[in-house]
Amino acid sequence: MSTSTTRPASGAGRQEPDGPTPTESRARPSAPRDVAARRAALRDRLASGGFLAPAVLLVGALLLAPFAATLWRSFSDDHRNPGFAGLDNYTLFFTNENLVRSVENTLMWVAGTVILPCALGLAIACMTDATRWSRFARLCVVAPYALSGAAVAVVWNFVLSSDGALNQLVAALGFDPPSQGWLLEWPGNTVVLILANTWQATGVAVILFLVGLQGIAPETLEAASLDGASPWQRFRHVVLPQLRPVSIIVIGMSLANGLKSFDLIWVLTRGGPGRSTETLAVSMYQETFLLQHEGAGAAIAVVLTLIVLAASWLYLRRQLDAKGD
Amino acid sequence: MRSFDTARTGSPPGFDRRRLLLAAGAGAAGLAVTGCARGDSTAAVPGAVSISTDNGSWDDGYRKAGDALKPLTGYRLRPLSNPEAISYKQVTQMTLQTSRACDLIKWGAGYELKSLARGGELSDLSRLWDRYEKKGWVRGSQRASMAYRGKVYGVPLYESHYVVFYNKRLFARLGLRPPATWDELKHCAAVLKRAGVVPFVATQFGNWPAYEWFQELISKIDPDFYRALMAGRARYTDDVPRQALDIWQDFMRKGWMTPPDYDQSNGAAGLKAGRIGMFLHGTWAAQGFTEVGMRPGKDYDAFLMPTVTKGAEKSVITESAVLAVPRSATRHEAGMASAGNWLAPSVQRVWTDFLGDGSANPVVRAGNPVVAEVKETVARERVTRLIRYGEASPPNLVQGNTQDIAAFMTQQSSPADTLRSMDERATDEWAAWKRDES
């Protein structure tokens, strides 16, 4: 990075207010000009501050202040008149089996939402990039992305309930439907939810990968062909490296989506049966609004926020630094 | 920064930008002011009382009841519904802390009402209640589920009983009659199962229906124990709940219950088509049977579930939502007047005809003959009314335990593990409730 080149400049800047340098004291006649320059600089700073202020105020009022309040609440108990509870709400992550299950489910969701939509998105984008029916195929894959999570959940409920379309299809084909419904038994129900989410989320990955594919210079592929590279080698060594910037975005988005997954789960199962399909986002809602355990809900929100920030920072720092090189 | 300098010189592009920024700033300020402004949905409307409800499909019923109220109070009803139950609770609780709450709110009875009343945001309706009692328009036994620390905070909106609806024609075809004993009930189930019909609806779909069979089985084994359990004086790990879950598990293993993800809203159609034989539900379900074209008394009928234990006191699970008047109601006096006349027979006839369910006023006969017969049976045979599980204990306890029952229904949790978990929660939540009370 270029920090080594910027530091001396900023250091010099910091010395300015300390008083006139020997050179400046010798050049007293130019003092009015200095004052004018300082006034101009001050005006510029005020103007910059004025432009920044709305954004800073909005972020402060709508994001940072609520986060600070949530952080404070997470150290309180859930009595009618809340008192200080120390780390009690955070120890629930080790002692409460529902929260342990919720963490497990969240990890499954993260793995599922990163691997499946990315792999499928890449495969579909590559396969439909240059075929005759590519537009239609792409439309079929991308269309679910336009639906809201709640609508997708309603559709999948028709499919997945015990007397739903999938079991009827299984029976029509002469097989026995599973004795327990698709959404009733852990961990199968979480896997099914992730697959339903994949159906919806793959569309955006396809779009982004298609954009990436269209940005690849055909000359590079031609050169590889002339060098005798097989199709797989061309894909592995020419296409994939050039898709790296897009892949970073797709994986980063999928990571965040996996960690904050809520709507599909809530509409399809409400986190149940019992609390078997809850992710941390659902547990946060459940504890805060249904069970009125606001301290516990706040602790989950804080932990979830830290996980999202840490995962995003670790991933993006590594990827973007590498790209920067 | 050069561009700022240009702007300061007053050149046309800079001037345009300044105007643009000014306009954008004014627009944003306008939006902010509008956003911070108080909404007018709860503002007073001449001649109308606003009523906040969680069921949009009842809006017509409230309007009709409001027309019947007008000659008595001078006000109609203006329903403001939020159809999502969880969102409704949150919004209503927040609205109560403002200076412009609705004039009337629909709420749950029992501990749902107590937890709202102890916040001091509801009006004391004890005088209205006393007047109702003098007129014989309420039963004295209802008072406990509407009161907190001796004061009444709600007026019953309706009165539903949990009964077993059955397909009359199907029963006749299979040579069955409504069971009077537990053995007869099991015989009906066995015959229905042999005929390819699922005998009972039991589901955790939508969460709360999970406790329907739980409350029914415990109260039919020992109604006194049910009362003690609901009041925190008995334990979930005692023999009665264990017996209830064993019976339930046996029914599930025999294939007598619908899958746990069965959608109850399909229950009426399932009963009509003969896919299911019996449907344990509140009497409000009668409206659904009418909607699918079943005639009360001819195509469907209902019976009280027989007691599991021979000689046990007859009981029926009863549910009444309540009408409460917020202290910060926009038109408080109008809200009080409406609550004070809600149980008038002229209003209740219109209301229960719309609902197809029973009135909380004992002198008003239900329009639906099946529901009317249930209520007459309950009165004639002096059947003990027990408050529904959903309102009988602190809300947090009910919420968590209902999820445990759902896990049991999907066989993810054994009866012993389920009851242990429910018992642990009961210990914690009762302690929390009592601590908050003190």
Automatic annotation (TrEMBL), chain A:
Subcellular location field: Cell membrane
Keywords assigned by UniProt, alphabetized: Cell membrane, Membrane, Transmembrane, Transmembrane helix, Transport
ABC transmembrane type-1 domain span: 103-315
One Pfam family here: BPD_transp_1
Membrane topology listed for this record: Multi-pass membrane protein
CDD domains per record: TM_PBP2
Residues that span the membrane, as ranges: 46-72, 107-127, 139-159, 191-217, 296-316
Residue ranges, annotated region (Disordered): 1-34
Any one annotated GO CC term: plasma membrane
InterPro entries (alphabetical): ABC_transporter_permease, MetI-like, MetI-like_sf
Primary location recorded for the protein, binned into one broad class: membrane
One biological process term in Gene Ontology: transmembrane transport
Domain of life: Bacteria
Family per similarity comment: Belongs to the binding-protein-dependent transport system permease family.
Name of the featured protein: Sugar ABC transporter permease
Automatic annotation (TrEMBL), chain B:
Superkingdom as given in the UniProt entry: Bacteria
SUPFAM superfamilies the record matches: Periplasmic binding protein-like II (SSF53850)
Stored PROSITE patterns: TAT (PS51318)
InterPro entries, A to Z: Bact_solute-bd_prot1, SBP, TAT_signal
One Pfam family in the UniProt entry: SBP_bac_1
Official protein name in the record: Extracellular solute-binding protein
Source organism (scientific name): Streptomyces triticagri
